[in-house]
Amino acid sequence: MKSISKNFFAVVFLTFIASNIFAQTKPAAVSNDPKTKALLDGMSKKYRSYKTIKANFKMILENVASKTKEEKVGLIVLKGGKYHVEIGSLEIICDTKSIWSFSKDDNEVTVNNYEPNAKGISPADIFTLYEKGFLYQMGEVVKENGKELQVVELTPTDKSKNYFKIKLFIDKASQSMVRTNIFDKNGNHYTYEIVQLTPNAPFEDVYFSFDAKKHPKVEVTDNRN
Question: Which of 7, 99, 111, 176 reaches 20 to 30 Å from 32, CA-CA?
Fold first, then answer.
């Protein structure tokens, strides 16, 4: 991974979404505001009711200190704990047992064991991540494109996390996630904006694993035990 785009990919995906955030964290604190909990629970219930979720998204990485900004568009498909992420020529695929990181440009794939004890944010949890390991509170209401978006701020109870704050922007009318802002301790701000979401699209389990036979001469680095 030598190019800027690949470094960008490595930072965002391998740091933040390589594994399950819910493992070995403290229980979630109950919000003092029942309206906040009701809003989050309503959103969580909605997304958990879907068998699959397909979402086109835009991702923005900003570094305050260096005043740099990079943007990418991508696709994520969720099915239970399984996920398949595509962004540019790169893919990350997880079947809850293994994680494949595939570079189409280099025709290389790295395989690792799925490690739910790591401290990242799993794509499988992006719509329900508040449920464990966070303090949360209601923020301001902002109006965008004729919609009222309720901001909810999350703070991890585990202070060893590499991020210190997450902001959720929730459409109050539809109880849908519009975007998520993640603030890490290195001065990076990550924005994930949902461009289009399709619930219950048909995806077979095979979509959530990597088949080397479909990629002639692919170089495989298998780090699994």
Answer: 176
